[in-house]
Amino acid sequence: MTVLASSLDPTSPELAANREAMLTKLAELDAEHAKALAGGGPKYVERHRKRGKLLARERVELLLDPDTPFLELSPLAAWGSDYTVGASLVTGIGVVEGVECLITANDPTVRGGASNPWSLKKALRANDIALANRLPVINLVESGGADLPSQKEIFIPGGAIFRDLTRLSAAGIPTVAVVFGNSTAGGAYVPGMSDHVIMVKERAKVFLGGPPLVKMATGEESDDESLGGAEMHARVSGLADYFAVDERDALRQARRVVARLNHRKAYGDPGPAQPPKYAADELLGIVPGDLRTPFDPREVIARIVDASDFDEFKPLYGTSLATGWAALHGYPVGVLANAQGVLFSEESQKAAQFIQLANQRDIPLLFLHNTTGYMVGSQYEQGGIIKHGAMMINAVSNSRVPHLSVLMGASYGAGHYGMCGRAYDPRFLFAWPSAKSAVMGPQQLAGVLSIVARQSAAAKGQPYDEEGDAALRAMVEQQIESESLPMFLSGRLYDDGVIDPRDTRTVLGMCLSAIHTAPYEGARGGFGVFRM
């Protein structure tokens, strides 16, 4: 085997400093995750419990097979906005009756589970994951519908939720709705468009218009139960397929529905997996606090792939990008990992060839980001950096094997695109707390603006305001720094979550398992024109 040798010294001051910086970032991350876990806060959590109801994550836990993990997705959605962190919705992948499922659960302690613009983005991302990976969808429903003050941002794009449910069903991907409380107005179409519907006695309320709206529209007097209660839908309308006496019974019935789906993975069990030779805890000390300091991504690869076994491809060519073959939890992967930050022509050509090889062999690709982008300067422009960078981006864009991305450090400029950033539809994308992503680094961006302003003043024959320039640069640097941090980006769903580096192997293993539920085949051509 080609086991990676590690030169990491666990006792070095540099490692200790890096580890301390990472632990500080993880503590900040934990504080933000705690806000999502807190939901609407103690007052509304207590009110919900007094009604004899389970919290959203308690419902998820009872639904899952005992002692199995739940990969929560987008837990920081809406971070930095006016809405509660988590966006009143829990989404993730978990195992139910031995079947990997995409699970969503409204959090009724946050404005009654009403959907805001970030809830919508989060739900649509979950549907994309379910469709791409053929994961059955289980919606644990208790929502008052759209958050009306923000309806202008929800109503038009919100129709995609119902479109997605029908497309999932049409693709043979099962959809299950378990209704615990309100599912009204447009929300009534969630059970209405699901393959299997379970409603809780005297709790579920499913109607297009509640009693007040019916009174205003038709003059009819009605009540919740006769208009849209679980028993009515089970006995009269037929919307409910299963009638549950309480929440736990509803979750038990949901598990039985999944057990009878006959839903099978496209691929069998993966090959045998051996743990890495090096401790995952050491991942905390690899990325420097200052991302301008390079680090060897092979130290990361050695701590996440099976047996730390890595067959490197073209190790002496394009050395700023490490590429090679490995296995992760028994699944074969091709790895592309930035080494010294900058991508040159050689790295771009090497990446394009490697991606083509992975497609020929039907091997998923894992991108480990730490890049400041493609190299600039007259020497590199004359050497063809544009066409070579375009070649790499072309290969990533038209590759048909599943892609996974992890942002470890910097992910700037077109390098973010070439390394399969969000716009290039990786099946999953996660970030470490050390990651940063923007059009370029804060100092570089502020410096560019300063040079342009200085040249503009000179062209007009005007004196240049040095004090104003210094203030502008400081302001821009601060703005770009704050907008390139992982929590800011995760809040906007530019990734699927910010993860502890020590969990990277587990998270990627769960993702690879989900990916192998759906059949895939690499591109055998069709990459478009490579400018040579």
TrEMBL record:
It comes from the Bacteria. InterPro entries: AcCoA_carboxyl_beta, ClpP/crotonase-like_dom_sf, COA_CT_C, COA_CT_N, MCCB/AccD1-like. Residues 275-517 form the CoA carboxyltransferase C-terminal domain. Residues 22-273 form the CoA carboxyltransferase N-terminal domain. PROSITE patterns: COA_CT_CTER, COA_CT_NTER. GO terms for molecular function: ligase activity. This is Acyl-CoA carboxylase subunit beta. It comes from Streptomyces muensis. The lineage of its organism: Bacteria, Bacillati, Actinomycetota, Actinomycetes, Kitasatosporales.
